[in-house]
Amino acid sequence: MSKSFEHILYDVKDGIAQITLNRPDRLNAFTQTMQDELIEAFDRIDADDDVRCVIVTGAGRGFCAGADLSGGAETFNFSKAVSDAPDGSQPDGADPRIRDGGGKVSLRIFECLKPVIAAVNGPAVGVGATMQLPMDIRIASEAARFGFVFTRRGVVPEACSSWFLPRIVGISAAAEWCFTGRVFDAAEALSRGLVSRVVSPDDLLPTARALAREIADNTAPVSVALSRQMLWRMLGADHPMEAHKIDSRGIFARGQQADAREGVSSFLEKRQPVYPDKVSGDMPTFFPWWPERPFS
Q1: Could you tell me the CATH number of the domain that includes residue 140?
Q2: Last residue of a domain, one of 199, 215, 231
Q3: How many helices (H) does the chain have, and how many strands (E)?
Q4: Model-level pTM?
């Protein structure tokens, strides 16, 4: 199945959705259109029970060169979108008129119910680096380059990266990369934990697809959806008891569902499992267990 978009390609085949950032003549620079299309693609992914895993990559020689700077010096000036308040107050971060577009994409990926693999084929800077952070696994080509370049553009890290990046690589690496704004290679990204492996350019997509295939062929989709949210959301818990409580609720709920019976039976019978429960209709009643946010 294929779906036509303007700035991305979207394709689903054999249970794997592939999103390709598709402005190769601009190194896939990020636009409002790309933002909206990425959010729509992830909406479609969550609604489609045939999709078991997602791969995100870039067309051509780059992953994403960051924000499209064709607007010139005023690229990051959004003041025209906000009318002056009568009392002279400034809008806060919850004001929908000033919300960061990369952050909208990151939050949508964070909420996704399917595992997301970044296949980083080339330069990934600015939002091209930060949009990867809520993806679960990042695999880099030897040609990949990364840069959290915001301080070199007179702005600050965005796309929720001040939350994600220190949790992934630690505060020291996050601070070094964000303060200097320098671009670094795939080997450094691997050594400091930003990516899980580095492969040759020719092996990038086959490696990502093999990993996606392992998930799609062997795991229960509802269990994966719950596990994804448990892992991410427990990063913010203040005590392991919070994890114990949600683990216990999950085991109690899933143990009563058909997938648990199939998982044990297929193991004992030494056959490939066929999990019947669907993300679209069989999530446990306690899901979601976290408080709603003021916006999503």
Answers
A1: 3.90.226.10
A2: 215
A3: 10, 10
A4: 0.93
